[in-house]
Amino acid sequence: MGEQRGALRGLRILMWVVIAVEVPVYLVWLVEVGYKAGQHLPRGDVARWAPPVLLPPAAVLFCVAAGWVWWGAVVAGTRSPLRDRWIVASLAFVAVGSVFCGVASVEDPSVSVGLLSAVVTGLGMIGLFFIPAAASRQLPDVIRRRSRRTAAAPGETGPQ
Fold it and tell me: d(Cα 30, Cα 40) in Å, to the nearest integer?
């Protein structure tokens, strides 16, 4: 039991380390590329401020909300809400907006800039998405329940 508790604690620590590294890098990157992308718009255009001001909060709001809904379904043991259109649409909006700003922020866009934007976006969104799971007190219970379910043979229930 102590070994399992240590592994669960290690998993939670690993999740928080990943979140603590990925999320700030992603949000600072969003502000920076949003600012640079906005500077490509004509002077006096009000939309110049929109990418650096609106995209980071939208990313946090949509990714954490999607993660919260998903985690609630995992805890309840119900169908994954990641199939719902609004969740997929909100995550796609954040991903497309983020990658677009990353590509639009440079003078000479290239495939490598697009790939870098996609990687930073993916890692940051994953970090934001898993905040509710990492912060949940039910994380050990869900992991134990899932491990019992996968350890049971097909057609059997896990040990109670």
Answer: 16
